[in-house]
Amino acid sequence: MSELVPSGAAVVAAGALALLATGQAMATVCPTDGGVHGTVESLQGQPVAGAAVTLTSSSATVVTSVDGRFCLHPVTAGEHRLVVYAEGYGLAEQGFLIEDREPVQLDVQLRPSFGAEVVISATRTEKRLADVPLHVQTVPRSRIESAAARTLADAVEWTRGVRVESTCQTCNASQIRLLGLEGPYSQLLVDGRPALSSLAMVYGIEQLPARLIDSVEVVKGGGSPAYGAGAVAGVINLIPHHPDHTHIEADARSERMGGAAGTAETPSWSLVADWASGSERAVTVHGQVDRVAPVDVDGDGFSEVSIRDLDAAGARYHEFFLEGSARFSAEVSYMSEFRRGGDRLHLPPEQAEVAEQLDSNRRGGAVSWLHTVSPLWDWRATVSHAATGRASYYGAGGDPGAFGATRNPLWVFDSHVNRGGDRGTVSFGVQAGRDLIDDRQPAYGRVIRETYRSVSGFVQDDRRIGDHVTLLYGVRADRHSAVDGAIVSPRAALMWTPRSDLTFRVSHSAGFLPPAVFDEALHIALLGGKPMVVRDATGLREETSASRMASLEWRPTVGRRMSMAFDATVFDTRIDDLFHRLEAADPATPELEFLRTNFGRARVRGVEVGWGLRRGGLTLDAGYAWQRAELGEAEPDFGSTTMFRTPEEYGTASVQWPLPRELTVFTGLRYTGSMLAPHYAGYIPENRLEVTRGFLTWDVGLLRRFAFGGDRRITASVAVRNLTDGYQQDLDRGPFRDPSYVYGPRFPRSLVVGLKLDL
Description:
By secondary structure, this protein is mainly β. It has a 22-stranded antiparallel β-barrel. A 5-stranded mixed sheet has the order 1-4-3-6-7, covered by helices on one side. The longest helix is centred in the first third of the chain and has 9 residues, at 12-20.
């Protein structure tokens, strides 16, 4: 058995095709009249299933079966090169010769390795993770499954330096924080393109089913100039499910969550049907149904976990043209969610003391053309449309008029061109968007009807300087209808690799947020039994920001079976004309009023450290972050110079451990440190700034796969989330509570059981 050793950049493009091509075929039986076949194993001799095996001369790709076997057929006579990649292992290649249609057998052994994954998010070009000049982390499909993730919010919770937090006790809105900054400072992408409007992002991370995500790539810092001007904290790119063979996967699960009134059961069902015709075309049809039951944790008759009934469905299609050098893809999607929190949930909302009810739907579609014109040129263009609508009720005391309606159609055009060369790649492109917000809340005198248009262009040079230095630099220029003139945002990153296992990175990026962002800050909440309405101040200006990062990564290989990775990152983000919410009560109106205004400067800086280990399929990952988030001057409501809801310390540690008999164990700890949280009067007699306590939660999970020949199998799973039942103890109670005074773990302890069938 010959051992294949990765050779680095020479096979990166082929490895990327192995991962990203959407026409892969599953083949375990090989004809005897030519072709190449064999097995892929770990150094311990265990078969590696799901490895992508690519023939670089034709870009033909197959995926190994459950016993690690592969076959590529037919293959023409002559010299060829084979590339093999599997999650958690190093990229490998080997040349071979076919003569007179004689079959060739290659048996491949893979080494465990960090940094060999091929990613696209950092620069919008395919690269090995170790060769990317920006700080990127990946969440593979195996981690998403073993953590029993149901939505995107669950899928990213185990990523180092990422915090997912609840922002509302009544409606359970959640957001993802990177580098200590709130959700609007990160850009969420699907397959490299923006897919959710700012309105849809308010509840969007819990409306994207985890089953449809093959992996998640998280870029810390401003990222490439190709990404939006608001990508200050980073980019979260979802790599959607791509079919590798014709099959059907059905999944059923049940989650039981404890509360004061007993256990509430949340069933969930999903179905994914893939059809692949050779390597030319493929179709995926998917659907997911969730029924989240309400939970009253403290027994006051008001929910802490809201009703969330989610129905999601969609289809994706792609086909290759021009002898495989061009790919056309199209997709459609539909989402409907009913969300209700408060009390008397069985009655209409106008008969409850407190009710936040949203009936949302989103219809979307996109078409894309990707063309590799030559080994040096490729380009991509995408047009997408998403129409989000929702009917809402934000009311207290049985208010019959607290109904509202919002609609938000979004159009996006995105183009990207790459020009390759011996030393690097120059990229440029144009992006344009049209975002209409029509939000009507007549009971509170708030009507927002605006159409925002944006046009931007970027240019980027990703270049190797010598053998050890890579420089990524570029600029983007944005014109937004809510901002006077164009805003230029320079971005740059430098990577120095003095040794193959040691990497230094530094980066700088600039960005801005326009004053036209409709986000969680503008949604109407209920406070002290009254509606709380946020309005934008007259003359609200855009926020501008600059982010700097420096990191060190060391990836030693310990013997033949084990690899480790250590990293440390220092970050510093400065924000000017910060958006900040201030009390602005008007005694002439019954509601509580807040004003979103510009408030000087802010600075968020800190350190993240991480450690990882791989030994075969065993993966250990741990990370810790320390940060300070400070305002340039004390805010007037509480006199604080510390930004709210930003803990100084947080971290994660997790283990994914494959065992004999197709068992996989997952266990993880999450720590959230103390923070400052505003606590408004209602349930309490007067406003207070609270110092919250820290939390440590523990999740455990177990998977077992039962094979029934070929690729047919059943996977049974059981998991306990928040085993320690760490949950906020000082929640406000009753109809006068402050729903924004919520921190710590998003949910109390729950038991999850699931069954998945692959045919």
